[in-house]
Structures are given as C-alpha cells and as structure tokens.
Amino acid sequence: EGEESEGNDTCMICFEQWTNTGEHRVVCLGCGHLFGASCIQKWLSERKHCPTCNHAAKRRDIRTVYACNLVAVDTAE
Fold first, then answer.
1. Which of 6, 31, 46, 64 shows the greatest Cβ crowding within 10 Å of its Cβ?
2. How far is Cα 31 from Cα 15, in angstroms, rounded to an integer?
C-alpha cells in the first residue's frame, strides 16, 4: 500500500484525512475534485477556483459526497 494509497483519502488543501460526517466531511466541486468541506468553503471565500485544476468555482458548487468508505483504485499503467 504505502505510496500507492497516499492522497486517496486526504484533503488537497490541508492534507488531513476527510471524514464522512462533520465539518471536514468529503465534498466535491463541479470539476470532481474532492476536499474537506471546511477547507474548500474557506478556500472559496477567498478565491474563485478549484485549488487542484483552477476551474472556476463558487461556494454554491460544493456538493456533499455520500460514502461510507471511499477508496480510489489507480488503474493507470
């Protein structure tokens, strides 16, 4: 696992693990990038773009992701 699993369950703003409830629950923007809710809300109150891809974004674009366990499987070769 080690390097392969790094980043699959962490917020790209604070690098802490997100949760499935509470202030840091996993959310996404229209572009599909995932963040902790509290981090992306703060980010978008100061900036108007996704911190990962720079796609234009507003706070109303934040969508809750409903998942008990979320694991990204890297299928790239």
1. 31
2. 19
